[in-house]
UniProtKB/TrEMBL annotation:
This is Phosphatidylinositol transfer protein N-terminal domain-containing protein. One of its GO terms (cellular component) is cell periphery. One of its GO terms (molecular function) is phosphatidylinositol transfer activity. InterPro entries: PI_transfer, PI_transfer_N, START-like_dom_sf. Signal peptide: none annotated. It comes from the Eukaryota. Residues 3-247 form the Phosphatidylinositol transfer protein N-terminal domain.
Length: 270
């Protein structure tokens, strides 16, 4: 059975700031989570133009995180073979990611994202039909919430307490109860996750695992975006593209020796 869930992640920043922040977060997390054994390999990274998204940036990546695979899943395929391949089309403020697993050829996982300058209350931004709306679930994610589940700890956990955190460079924060109602600037990432794993006996369980994993990843990545605001604030897309080019020009990102992104003060800003 196809599962459709829309996650709405409200962020205390503008649309333009989020574009920079999201790109910075992706680069930094890839560096921090890539080792000789596991991590992210970038297969292709280029600009694109089509009739669906217009102009944007396309990337193809392979994710190998064997240590985080549930043990029950290895009864169907070895951990080493459970790689995830992601094709992503980023035409900000619209993006789409299609994730496949060669070991489960029938698996279909798509993430469609639309970014809007609101606080998460827009309805049907993805233009779903009546049947899709009837099966869609909606969850608004609060990055300031301290509530985490098993998958959040497995994916990783941002340890910043946003109820006491204040950005030194922007003076934003702390994020106390009700912050989404009066925050400015503000924007929301509307992420529509569609999963179909048509496998008898374990398909539904696989769908639930992937959905829980995506939720945990959304929490972790967006928590890091705000926690690292003083690192990326003022950076330019041009400079980040240059850094991305350095990373992706190597045959393996694991071989790169770059200045740590946490030392962002050495990079060119506006």
């Amino acid at each position: 059975m196809v599962q459709i869930k829309e996650f709405r992640i409200v962020m205390p920043m503008s649309l333009a700031e989020y574009e920079v922040a999201q790109m910075y977060m992706v680069l930094k997390m890839q560096q921090e989570n890539t080792t000789n054994a596991e991590g992210v390999d970038v297969v292709e990274n280029k600009t694109f133009e089509d009739n669906v998204f217009g102009k944007g940036h396309y990337t193809s990546k392979v994710y190998s995180f064997q240590s985080k695979i549930p043990s029950w899943l290895t009864t169907f395929a070895s951990a080493d073979s459970l790689l995830l391949k992601e094709d992503a089309w980023n035409a900000y403020p619209k993006c789409q990611s299609v994730i496949k697993c060669p070991s489960f050829a029938k698996l279909h996982l798509t993430i469609d994202t639309i970014h809007l300058a609101d606080n998460g209350k827009s309805e049907n931004v993805h233009g779903l039909n009546k049947e899709q709306l009837a099966s869609r679930q909606v969850e608004v994610i609060d990055i300031a919430s301290s509530v985490r589940d098993y998958w959040s700890y497995l994916v990783g956990r941002c340890d910043v307490d946003f109820s006491t955190f204040t950005s030194a460079r922007t003076n934003r924060g702390p994020l106390v109860e009700g912050w989404r109602e009066h925050c400015y600037p503000v924007m929301t990432a509307y992420k529509l996750v569609t999963i179909d794993a048509p496998y008898w006996g374990f398909g539904k369980r696989l769908e639930q695992v992937l959905l829980a994993g995506e939720r945990a990843l959304f929490i972790e990545t967006h928590s890091n975006i705000f926690a690292w605001i003083d690192e990326w604030y003022g950076m330019t897309i041009k400079k980040l593209r240059e850094l991305e080019g350095q990373l992706y020009s190597s045959s393996s990102e694991r071989d790169m020796k770059l200045v740590p992104l946490k030392h962002a003060d050495v990079l060119e800003r506006k």
